[in-house]
Every structure is written in structure tokens, then in C-alpha cells.
Amino acid sequence: MALKVGYVPYLHAEPFYFDMERRGLELVEKLPSALAEAAENGEIDAGPLPLVDGFRLQDRFEPVSGFGLASVQKTGSVFLYASQPVEALQEARIGVMDGASTSLWLLKVLLQLKYQVQPSAYVTLQEPHDAFLAVGNRGLRQRRGARGFPQQYDLGEAWYQWTGLPFVFSRWFVRRDADARDKALLEDTLYVALEDGVNAMYQLSSPREELLMLPREVMLYIQGFRYFLRMTEQRAIEQFQHYLKQLEEVR
């Protein structure tokens, strides 16, 4: 039976899936916020799990080498839009779009620990809100701003300015009890994606009209991410874990 792999339908994730279907891996489309539940209930055997979910699932899932997703200095697609400066968001209502996972925890860390701001609630985008978080392809489509919300903050950039580190959004995990041959196939496919998948994004000749992006914009966007995590990214993960613990103490 083919390994079932969580497929995240965002532009920055596309390089990972470059050769998967051709090599017999079954893709199951899920937003980042739904990946952990899908992993827990057996819908998927592997995927780029949001970092925070990966922490708690390590008894059943193991990392796939160093594969993951990290913004280098800014994301270009994970934005907080606000009606007033971030320092004035005390007791504000923050709208959160479907799909946000690690991005939401990053926002909470930044607001409470960096900016010393405590919102009153995190709500859906259908409810009244003073600011909102946009991620993935929606963040890309709104990268030039959102009407009615003149303040715009790239969360990856805010993290980098604060810590001097990249920010790790996800890591690839596979079920520990998966067949060893399937694990090896997945790892090999991701190594191919690391080179050929990324290169394919650089060589686009047509615009991505659904994202309002020209080929050069796509290339520059992809260049802002790392797809293999090394020592610097590991330090970033440890720093984020440290801040998450502080966040629990602040509550």
C-alpha cells in the first residue's frame, strides 16, 4: 500500500511534492492546521507537520532527515494586518484564518513576549476583529496590504529582527512503524525535490495568476525559504520552544 503523504496546497510547499506522485506516493490534501489530526487518526503516514504539532507527536512519528520549512529573514506570506500599530493591540480581537498553525503560535509569542501585548481573544475572520493573521496563499495574495488595516507585519521578519534567527514553520515526519522501504522512498524523493523541485520553481515562465505573481516574484519568494534544516535552524527551534514555555508561564 502506498505511503499517504499530507499535501499542503501552498506555493512555498510545492517543491517538496515535485516527484512524489510519479514515484507512487499518495498525496492527501490538508491545510497545515489539519495535518496533525490527520496524522493521529491514520489519514496520513507522513507530511510536513507544523512545528508545534511535531513536538507532541514524536512518540509516534520520527523526523525525515533534516527536511522542513524555515523562513530565512522574512516570509512574504505570513502577515499580521492591524488597524493600529502592534503596540496598541492590548485587549484587541485578532482574527485567524483557517489553516494557521505554527504561525498562530509565533504570533502569540511575538505579541506577548516581544511587544508585551495581550489580546482579548483570537477569533475567526467571520467575527469582528481589530487585526488579523493571513498565511500561505492568502497571505501572498494580500502581500501588498489589506484594505482597512494599514499596519502590516511580516511575522518571520519580526522574529528575525528579535532573535537574529530563521524561523522554522514545519518539519517532515513519518510514522515510526511505517515500512523501512517506504521511509527510504520518501527520504529519497525529498532529496530530489530539494534540487529539482526548487529548480523547477526558478524556471517558471508563466505568471501565477491566482496569486498575482510574476515568475521572478515566485523565484524570489522561494529563495526566502530553506527546505533542509541545519544547526542554525535547530537553534531557532530551541529558542522557539523556550519562548513557548515562557508563554505558558505568562498565562
TrEMBL record:
- Tell me the Gene Ontology biological-process terms attached to this UniProt entry: menaquinone biosynthetic process
Q: Top-level EC class, please? A: lyase
Which pathway does the protein contribute to? Quinol/quinone metabolism; menaquinone biosynthesis
Identify the InterPro entries for this entry.
Answer: Menaquinone_biosynth (IPR003773), MqnA (IPR030868)
**Which reaction equation describes what this protein catalyses?**
chorismate = 3-[(1-carboxyvinyl)-oxy]benzoate + H2O
Q: Offer an example of a GO molecular function term for this protein.
A: hydro-lyase activity
> What does this protein's UniProt record list under function?
Catalyzes the dehydration of chorismate into 3-[(1-carboxyvinyl)oxy]benzoate, a step in the biosynthesis of menaquinone (MK, vitamin K2).
Per the similarity annotation, which family is this?
Belongs to the MqnA/MqnD family. MqnA subfamily.
Question: Which PANTHER family did the record assign?
Answer: CHORISMATE DEHYDRATASE (PTHR37690)
Q: What is this protein called?
A: Chorismate dehydratase
Name the encoding gene, please.
Answer: mqnA
